[in-house]
Write a structure and sequence with these properties.
six-stranded parallel β-sheet; 2 domains; alpha/beta; seven-stranded mixed β-sheet
């Protein structure tokens, strides 16, 4: 049976979803290649001011895409963008359809699942796959040359004679152990050799037990309403992947990318026991305060957890519950922090600025709460309205978002998505211009490294009411100091090492 050749075009970062799709296709003897562009030079996280794309490199990227398609001759070119990458992928898709009109352009991924009706309107897109695509993409490949069957593939939306055929959503895979391990070679083969000791990213489950209004999981909850979204791989399956990958890639750290690793304590115990025996590497993971106890903290620390991440986002319990759909109490957050501090487990708290309707008093409350928790580091940023999420409705009701704003968000054109971090920390959101976010951002950097009495003194004098923004240079220094305090300076070092390695990799420069 004839099947098409697939070419995935991926930008900026490793995409574990693409790695799983590649593994599924290869398992079924279907040809697939990846064209990867680091684009570190345009990463928002490491710019102080406005991010301006490097036009020369963007032109070289397009030349490389054209060259690859001419040489490889794929029948299908795939993109799986996040919202921040959507405009870039559309630009490349338009180029491909212009130069190679017979190539089928297929889109999937987070942004597509959020606003499929908007995405499918793009003339350069021939079809989209909704939801988890491990099985649908194989069905798509096996029936690609039979139009009658192709048009009936579950989860596929495909254009025909000016209209769109919208097939029903395929059911979620229940047994994750039946899936092949993600195809890391597809990305690792394109990374300079001196970067291959990087962190290994793994998903030990799929789905999230929560549906916070600002998170993409909010979209997936609605997409798979009535189905069991939260599914787990067995501990043996997880550790087998890590054990085999460790021998092959010799990485130094593991990042569990699950939304919450500690959902099932019995399963966690079994996983960590095997991990200590077979893997024996430092790892990071996410947690939720309602799913924590002291024994879990002790077990994580014993097993090599070097960074436990916990979302909070707002310190006001009523606000969290009403607008963010987060039900944890402040006491549960404080207790989880106390356990981490007691057992010397590095942990971070996440906070979101510019939440709709949040007040200056809410932010003062956050400073007080975090000072009680004394986290190793606070990861803070501004709210980015993700398309399809419930919090957009709150923004609209409060007059922060207009219909035009929501349209731009759906199209990936929201300017917030393309601002540098420093711009985001210091910008003044509409309707809350009386709040100096930059001062509260300064508080978030100071809390882990300064004495609590000093933080309380600054609150007492209400320095957050000053109108002048904190200079960006001071914010950068504080960010670096907090990374040093948390022993996470390696994150910045790794980025600069990647920039140097990619820019000086002779093979990549030649390919450009």
């Amino acid at each position: 049976m004839a099947t098409p050749r697939f070419l995935f075009v991926q930008t900026e970062q490793e995409n574990i979803g693409v790695e799983y799709l590649s593994a599924a296709l290869k398992q079924n003897s279907i040809e697939i290649e990846l064209l990867f562009f680091d684009r570190i030079y345009s990463n928002n996280a490491f710019h102080l001011g406005k991010v301006t794309p490097n036009i020369d490199k963007e032109n070289l990227i397009q030349k490389r895409i054209i060259k690859k398609i001419r040489e490889y001759q794929p029948e299908v070119v795939c993109f799986s963008p996040f919202t921040s990458q959507f405009l870039w992928t559309i630009k490349q898709a338009k180029l491909i359809k212009q130069k190679f009109p017979k190539v089928f352009v297929l889109f999937g991924g987070v942004h597509v699942n959020s606003v499929p009706e908007t995405v499918i309107k793009q003339k350069c897109i021939d079809g989209i796959i909704l939801g988890e695509a491990d099985k649908p993409i194989v069905e798509f490949a096996n029936n690609f040359f039979d139009k009658n069957k192709l048009e009936k593939i579950e989860s596929l939306w495909i254009k025909k004679n000016g209209s769109v055929i919208k097939n029903k959503l395929a059911k979620l895979i229940s047994d994750l152990d039946n899936l092949p391990f993600p195809d890391k070679d597809i990305i690792y083969s394109q990374i300079p050799a001196d970067l291959l000791d990087k962190t290994y990213v793994i998903m030990a489950s799929r789905g999230c037990p929560f549906a916070c209004t600002y998170c993409a999981n909010n979209v997936y909850q609605k997409l798979y309403l009535g189905q069991k979204r939260l599914r787990f791989r067995s501990p043996v399956n997880i550790v087998t992947e890590l054990f085999e990958a460790k021998k092959k890639y010799n990485f130094k750290m593991v990042e569990f990318f699950d939304d919450v690793l500690t959902v099932d304590e019995k399963r966690l115990d079994e996983l960590l026991k095997l991990y200590r025996k077979k893997v024996k590497l430092p790892f990071t993971c996410y947690m939720h305060p309602q799913l924590m106890n002291e024994q879990i903290v002790k077990n994580l620390k014993k097993s090599g957890c070097c960074w436990l991440k916990m979302g909070v986002q707002s310190a006001n319990e009523e606000y969290r519950k009403k607008y963010l759909r987060r039900g944890e109490t402040n006491q549960e957050i404080i207790q989880a922090a106390l356990w981490c501090n007691k057992h010397k487990l590095t942990f971070s708290l996440d906070h979101i600025f510019n939440l709709p309707g949040e007040t200056e008093e809410n932010l003062v409350e956050a400073v007080r709460l975090y000072s009680k928790c004394k986290p190793t580091i606070i990861n803070y940023g501004t709210l980015i309205y993700l398309p399809g999420t419930e919090i957009i409705e709150q923004g609209k009701k409060m007059g922060i978002l207009s219909d035009k704003d929501i349209e731009m968000i759906s199209e990936g054109k929201d300017p917030v998505v393309h601002m540098s971090n420093m711009e985001l920390f210091t910008r003044k959101e509409k309707k809350i211009k009386n709040i100096n976010i930059s001062v509260f951002a300064m508080f978030m950097s100071l809390i882990p490294i300064a004495p609590t009495w000093f933080i309380m003194m600054l609150l007492k004098f209400k320095i957050y009411q000053v109108r002048s923004e904190v200079p960006q240079a001071i914010m950068v220094i504080l960010k670096v100091l907090t990374k040093i305090h948390a022993k996470q300076l390696y994150i910045y070092v790794a980025v600069f090492k990647a920039i140097f390695s990619f820019n000086n990799n002779e093979k990549r420069i030649t390919n450009y």
